[in-house]
């Protein structure tokens, strides 16, 4: 099972095992971590699951046009910004580290 490390805006770090087929967003929400609001429940329509994906996490698909458009309106966007609902973990996914900004929701 892939491990996702969530660095929250308060500086705390949480390592969560996330089942294959679930998203980085799911791992956060199911473990009640603050910061990933996920208002739309993962349907890629709100950008309240914005995270910064650490370099080297290239096992994910490139952002879709829809994801790119939503990120245009998110606060604090950086080149490594992604919507965590679109980061789906596979059986061969390496461990992932994301930083949760203080701007979601």
Automatic annotation (TrEMBL):
Cofactors named for this entry: [2Fe-2S] cluster
Signal sequence coordinates: none
A Pfam cross-reference name: Fer2
Every 2Fe-2S ferredoxin-type domain range: 2-104
Keywords: 2Fe-2S, Iron, Iron-sulfur, Metal-binding
Domain of life, per lineage: Bacteria
CDD domains: fer2
Family: Belongs to the adrenodoxin/putidaredoxin family.
Protein name per its UniProtKB record: (2Fe-2S)-binding protein
Lineage, top ranks: Bacteria, Bacillati, Actinomycetota, Actinomycetes, Pseudonocardiales
């Amino acid at each position: 099972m892939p491990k996702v490390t969530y660095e929250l805006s308060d500086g705390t770090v949480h390592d969560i095992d996330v089942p294959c087929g679930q998203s980085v967003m799911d791992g956060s929400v199911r473990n009640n971590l603050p910061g990933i609001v996920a208002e739309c429940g993962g349907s890629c329509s709100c950008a309240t699951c914005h995270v910064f994906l650490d370099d080297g996490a290239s096992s994910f698909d490139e952002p879709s046009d829809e994801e790119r458009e939503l990120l245009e309106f998110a606060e604090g966007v950086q080149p490594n910004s992604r919507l965590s609902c679109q980061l789906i973990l596979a059986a061969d996914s390496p461990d992932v580290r994301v930083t949760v900004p203080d701007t979601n929701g």
